[in-house]
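Listing 4. Sequential folding, example run.
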Amino acid sequence: MVCPKCGKKIEDGMLYCGYCGEEIRIVPDFNPEVEISIEETLNNVVREINEDLSDDSKEETAFAEVESSKLKLIYTSAIAMVVVILLTCLAVMIYHDNSASYQAKMGDKYLAKNRLNDACTYFGKAVGLKPTNFDYRNKLAECYIAMDDIDMAVESYRGMLNYDKESTLTFNKVIDLYMQYGEYEKINDFLIQNGDEQILEAFEEYVAIPPTFSIDEGNYDDSIVVAMSDISAGKIYYSIDGGEESIEDAEYVEPLYLKNGTYIITAYFVNAHNIKSSVVSKKYVIESQSAGEPVIMPLSGEYTTPQLIRIIVPNDCNVYYTFDGTDPDENSRIYCDPIALPEGESVFKFISVNSKGQKSDISTVNYTLNVPVALSIEDSHNLLISKLVEVGYILDENGSIKDYPGNFSYVYADMRLIGGVSLYCFNEYYDYASIAKNMTSNRFGVDVMTGDVYVVTRTENNVYSIKKL
């Protein structure tokens, strides 16, 4: 090998020239084919390296993608699980909120713990969800009762009537509740507001309904008789403004006779529990040109207990009557006091005559009185005398009186029903030496069945009472 600089021959393998010091570069002689071959080889190597690198990169990318997918799947699953749990909780909450049985169950739970407000809330929700369930309404009412909220308890019961308007059980619950607190007026109001005719009839003792009038208010060209009635036990009170005489808060006992004039009648009813109804008012304008007809009670008919014929005499009139079949006039008997109905068949005729001489039509009534009796009038008279002697009221059967001249005698007057007892009634007369015979104020009665003797008294208002002798 020679030095490329000085041309000196140097040994193979030397890196520097020993003569000139030039660096020796070992470069083979140029051969284009070899160069091409080397270049192709290098290119192939580079390609293979790149392919290997590409395959490794792909493997790493695929692995990363797999790992990423796993993470995404885990994250998505976790989110889905949370959503499912939340939706489940929400569904449970919605179910509970819309479940009447669940709300009632919670109400029972809080009621047992005496947490009444909470119990009312839950029972109220149960009722709202299932308003036709009376058990829920009853429990809600019980909660309010425990809280002394009676009005709300009643409202709970009232809701039942929306689905069963004729539930006597519901009305009984309300009535019992109000009665515990003595709220009778509220019982009346509840029944009137919520009850139909059938319910009012079933609970009539608690109802105070205004009285009804037999004749509608208005204008009339003749005298009229107005009667008032009620549906239950109690009393009617009325006032009259107009006519010749005004009446205030009088107890109604018989129909009202209205003649010429303008009348305003106001009335109200008071039941057995002292509950007062609302006031009703009627206006009547009467322009009559004749005497009003008398009102006769009782009506024609057959009777088995003693009766008294009572007459409502028209204002500014006298009433005359007969019972022998003839027509009455001003010369006939004048009616003053109730007339005892005679036994057997009888016919009474009545007529009114006013101060102007105007007459009414004749009113005729027919009666048959058949009272079961165990004693005759004569037997009763003998029993009366014996009893008066026994008690020392008279000295003997002749009616002799101790320390007084003359004697008492007893004359049959009529048969009457007094205090629920059918009596033969006898008037007492004082007979002085057969010179004068006057009726005393004493009256006696004998039970037509038993023969018991009674003292009969009469008040200024013609009210009779009896006391056993």
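-- end of first protein; second protein begins --
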Amino acid sequence: MAPVAPIHREGRAARDLGSGTKKGGPVRNSLRRAVSPQSTSWLFGATLAHELLEALIASVDDAIYMVDPDGRVRFLNPAALRILGYDRPDELIGRISHETIHYQHRDGTHFPAEECPMLRPRTTGETVREELDWFTRKDGRMVPVAYSSAPLATDQGRGAVVVFRDVSERLASEESRRREAEERARAEELQASRARIVTAMDAERRRLGRDLHDGAQQRLLHALLLLQDGRHADEDPAVREAARAVAVREIRACIEDLRELAAGIHPAILSNRGLSAAVESVTARVPIPVDLVIPDRRFPEPVEVAAYFTVTEALANVVKHAMAIGVDGDAAAAGPAALDGVVPPAITTTDGAVVSASADGAASSTIDASASHARVEVVASPGTMRLVVSDDGPGGATLVAGHGLGGLQDRISALGGTFEVDSPPGAGTRVIVELPIAG
């Protein structure tokens, strides 16, 4: 039974050699014992011991690669040949290792030899392990590898032995899991977005009902009562004429209310003349200069609608902020109703808010606009429309799900687009939208 221990030790050495990248086995000691003729020749003889060693190294799944103190390749097993894409060992034996398989990064940039961790054990004596690196194959393609590099003492000085394996399948599996996670997150966000859109639609229906009840309906009822009163005032033509005049004013005001309400739902100019004309009509009533860079062409209707309301919402935010800092504290605290007397309606936002400049298009004297300039730019490229609305205001804009810009984000996502708000405090705001378009 005495001879059993050496045989077991050599088997353990072979296993350690083949598992260097997973367990970090004692590669250096294993190789030292493996290459020692005395460890096996007493049992098999020198020739058989050498053949046994070759068989053990050839049989392991991991690639084994040895370099001498000068960094030249001195040995590699069949697994190393296969991963590196070579047919015969003599294609690599004697060549500088780094300049042959490790001279470039994944992106193709040069990898200086002095920065190469794989050969560091030759100079420091340390063992280096990398979970992901890239070797260059014979055909120039790169292969992802995980490796363990350990120092190896030789008669000429300290070399290194590298045990590595191809991790392409691992990376593919990780990428597949990442894509699946992204798809799940996208599906969950789409579901949540649809729920927010339904909620927003219900809220919009209620708002429209309130606006019709409080605005157009009340004006029409008032006009009806005035006309009825005038009909019974036959004995006094002046009273009848006064009632008729007031009724006409109420009806005209009702028509204007309905126009504004319709513009908030879908402006006629957008359908008739397109995005450029519709945005121009909006910016004409904004109290700060707005540069427009919009191609004079038509886009698919859903894209134009989404872009139009993105512009109106972004510009309304600029005006609303100017109003908030230009009105005294009591009016600001009272909410939108207190602002009705400060500026007349001009911009209708997606959530029904109405903000504007003064009636003649100039900024109201009560407004100290924090933004002095805005810009709307649309760039059409094959398959994509990119919209950027920017201003030089105070920044700090935030998204609230289902409201304002947050509601627009849901609309853009439903069309397969992307929505981004870049608004660092003190550096203005940029709303960036990209939407897919056909053709």
